[in-house]
Specification:
single chain; 461 residues; alpha+beta; Arc Repressor Mutant, subunit A; Nucleotidyltransferase, domain 5; 4 domains; six-stranded antiparallel β-sheet; five-stranded mixed β-sheet; 11 strands
């Protein structure tokens, strides 16, 4: 095979230089052939010289002279391995320097490229050593679950910018994906304008409705995945939540691989320049169904393509009741009702339709993905359930609207302070002479004088 390659190379070189050799005036011809073939003039002249000196054999690929190679003994290689194991980040250049200083070899005897190759062949290159130094418990083996829904991997991916903001401002989109580990089947994939826990739960809810409950979910350590809200949801559903270690993206290799394939879809979608995220998601769904799920992954597709492999898996799906699913995603929080009968939910103001709850702490129950459309349920013991909807401030108001507790919780008009009254009574008991002072005749009041002259005149009289 190697001889055929050398032969073909020599034939090509001879074909290129033959017109030059046959021509009497080859100065212009050699320049033209150099441009046509993409070979430098210096190389063409070297080929001609080798052909004139050695004939056709001279045009074959030159073999390196093995006698000129610097051979490193096994003893030196073993000592270099020990130096690498002592400090895996130690460079080959430093290893050679240490060997020279310890008189294990002569200066310049070992070439860096040669020792690098020998260390790599033995399994002690820097990259190979990193598998044992970065994490002691890291697994170098691939893993794959036996059945569908035994493990589901999830991840966010940056999507294209779309003109969906105010005044057609370009907004970044984010793709969230749930993919089955055993079959590579995409359970859910959708573009959003945010990457929060609400988007994660919206995606998971569709997975539960369409394919049932997964046994375990593998995630990274992103903020949406480690939130208390998502933790409570998984506990309610009985789903085990696992996290890959930071900066170890290969643990979620299946979803990472799918995210790279999505780049193909994004490149095609950018040609059509979508103006809405709905259009983007519609075409993503078609691409997954017609392109991705029709792929045959030789490592997992024993029964056909990805779609058939997932559907023909013998393990039954665990389908949950709708009521269980809905309750799992409901959020219960405590809020205090303001003096204008409003509460704050997820950074926005919601108005309660029951004025009797002003000033009370109430329980707020809502589905974050249906909050703006359906509002929130507001509860307090002793009061009827109420609804809270996002506040819309209008130009008019109903001044005749009153509270039910108007006659029971509004201030009462009185002419005497009960606080001062009880204090006076206590004071009288403590100081009896105070009662006598009240019975004594009042002394004549000294008149007030408007100026000093009137006061002097009164004294003379």
């Amino acid at each position: 095979m190697k001889d055929n390659k050398e032969e073909a190379k020599a034939v090509y070189r001879l074909r290129v230089i033959l017109p030059i050799i046959s021509s009497d005036s080859n100065s212009n011809l050699i320049k033209r052939i150099s441009l046509e073939e993409g070979v430098s003039i210096r190389t063409l002249k070297r080929w001609i010289k080798r052909y004139e000196e050695e004939g056709f054999e001279g045009l074959k690929i030159r073999k390196q002279n093995s006698n000129k190679k610097l051979v490193i003994s096994e003893d030196i290689v073993e000592k270099a391995i020990i130096l690498r194991r002592e400090n895996p980040s130690r460079s080959v250049k430093d290893i050679i320097r240490v060997l020279e200083l310890e008189n294990e070899c002569k200066k310049g005897e070992i070439k860096r490229s040669t020792l690098t190759k020998r260390l790599s062949d033995k399994g002690y290159s820097k990259k190979q050593m990193s598998y044992y130094t970065s994490d002691k418990d890291i697994s170098a083996r691939r893993f794959e679950k036996l059945h569908r829904m035994d493990l589901v991997q999830a991840d966010f991916k940056y999507g294209p910018y779309l003109p969906i903001g105010k005044d057609n401002k370009m907004i970044q989109t984010y793709l969230h994906v749930f993919i089955d580990d055993a079959t590579r089947y995409v359970l859910d994939a959708k573009f959003y304008t945010r990457q929060t826990v609400n988007e994660v739960e919206d995606s998971l809810k569709r997975v539960l409705i369409n394919y049932g409950k997964p046994k375990r979910i593998l995630l990274d350590n992103g903020k949406p995945y480690i939130s208390n809200q998502f933790k409570k949801t998984c506990v309610k559903l009985g789903i085990i939540k696992s996290h890959a270690k930071p900066y170890k993206s290969w643990v979620k290799g299946k979803v990472e691989r799918f995210n790279r394939l999505v780049d193909k879809f994004i490149s095609e979608a950018q040609i059509e320049k979508y103006s809405s995220i709905e259009k983007l998601n519609e075409n993503l769904k078609i691409w997954i169904d017609q392109y991705y799920h029709n792929r045959v992954d030789t490592t997992v597709c024993k029964l056909g393509n990805i779609n058939e492999t997932f559907k023909n898996d013998p393990k039954p799906l665990i389908i949950l009741d709708k009521e269980i699913i809905d309750n799992a995603f409901v959020i219960r929080e405590t809020r205090k009702v303001s003096k204008v009968c409003t509460i704050s939910i997820e950074g926005e103001t919601y108005e309660i339709d029951n004025l009797n709850l002003i000033g009370f702490e109430v329980e707020v129950i809502y589905d974050p993905n249906k909050l703006k459309e359906e509002g929130a349920l507001v509860r307090r013991i002793g009061y009827e359930d109420s609804k809270a909807y996002i506040q819309h401030i209008g130009v008019n108001t109903d001044f005749n609207k009153t509270r039910d507790y108007l006659n029971t919780r509004t201030p009462i008009k009185v002419e005497e302070s009960r606080v001062l009254k009880v204090l006076r009574e206590t004071y009288k008991k403590k100081y009896p002479e105070y009662n006598k002072s009240l019975a004594e005749p009042k002394k004549e009041l000294v008149p007030l004088y408007s100026n000093l002259n009137d006061l002097e005149e009164e004294k003379r009289k």
